[in-house]
Amino acid sequence: MIKNVHGNTVDLLGEAIVAGRYAVGQSIPPEPVLCEQLGVSRTVVRESVKSLVAKGLIHTGPKVGTHVLPSDQWNWFDPDVIAWQSRAGLSPEFIRDLQDLRLVVEPAAVKLAATRATDADIAEIEEAYAGMHRAVMGGGDYVTSDLRFHQGLLRASHNRMLVQMSKALGALLRTSFEISTSKKDGPRSSLPLHRAVLDAVVARDPVKAERAVLVLIEGAHKDIEQVLGSRRRLPRVHRPALPLKAA
Fold first, then answer.
1. How confident is the model at residue 224 (pLDDT cuts 50, 70, 90)?
2. In the chain, what is the greatest distance between 2 CA atoms, to the nearest angstrom?
3. Does residue 45 lie in a domain region?
4. DSSP secondary-structure letter at 221?
5. Quick check: is 237 in a domain?
6. d(CA 200, CA 107)
7. What is the pLDDT of residue 1?
8. Alpha-carbon distance 84 to 16, whole Å?
9. Is the pLDDT of residue 247 over 60?
10. What is the C-alpha to C-alpha distance for residues 32 and 61, in angstroms, rounded to an integer?
């Protein structure tokens, strides 16, 4: 998606903050300086600052200026924040927090899905799984289908708060999937683990479903640790997912 001048300005400032070019507590340059540095109008700078305030990255006020907030106040459910973090580098703390979140949210959602999923829910998850299978066997976009699979499980919980989280978790989950599937044969080896989760939901077995998704999450975590340990270049998760090559 091509961004306008405002979107590009938010990106430039947000990425600079997340990358640490402006330290916590430090004031960002005043409007005239930013206008000159970025080649934009004061209106664009002001609107961009408002966007960064809404994302929790900065605070602004009379007589105190505009300064950077600690990372624990940033909105980590915002796709832009996740994209900026991916460009700046995925820290061990970020990966740990993502793993912790998955362990808290997904097993509970899958247990509910095993008792509440409708035929339409299961058909949607089956379709997502089929897309993963096609990508592994014949090449194509695996990550998008993987994301549809997990978001479908969250929606199948029919818990309104978890359904809302499925939207917010999208960028976070995609980050995990991009990294874990960059491991050679990672997608192929994870297919039966996904199938086990889906089969347990279809069988209306919440205990088995919870156990299966825990195995799946742990497997993804091990893949991520191996990828990070290899020190090879990580996927650029702010860009479209790279397709798998045909087997």
1. confident
2. 63
3. yes
4. H
5. no
6. 12
7. 46
8. 8
9. no
10. 17
The predicted pLDDT at position 202 comes to 98
Q: What type of residue sits at position 49?
A: V
- Domain assignment present for residue 24? The answer is yes
CATH number for the domain spanning 37: value is 1.10.10.10
What's the token pair of residue 31? 């409007």
- Clarify whether residues 112 and 159 are in a common domain: yes
* pLDDT tens profile 6-41: 999 999 999 999 999 999 999 999 999 999 999 999
The region, left, alpha or beta by phi > 0 then psi within -120 to 50, assigned to residue 67 is beta
Separation CA 153–CA 91 (nearest Å): 28
The two tokens of residue 54 are 């809404």
* Structure-token pair, residue 234: 């990580």
Residues 58 and 100 in one domain: no
Q: Residue 245's pLDDT is what?
A: 66
Q: Kindly state whether residues 164 and 86 are assigned to the same domain.
A: yes
Provide the residue type at 74 as one letter.
W
CA distance 199 to 122: 10
Please say whether the beta carbons of 244 and 146 come within 8 A. Answer: no
Per-residue pLDDT of 195-220, as tens digits, reads 999 999 999 999 999 999 999 999 88
For the chain, report the end-to-end CA distance as a whole number of angstroms: 30
Is there a single domain that holds both residue 138 and residue 47?
no
* Mean pLDDT over each residue of the chain, to the nearest integer: 88
* Enclosing domain of residue 134: 79-230
Question: Would you say 132 and 146 are in contact if contact means Cβ atoms under 8 Å apart?
Answer: yes
CA distances 43 to 31, 35, 49, 62, Å, are 9, 9, 10, 18
Tell me if 65 sits within 8 A of 27, measured CB to CB: yes
92 and 213 within one domain: yes
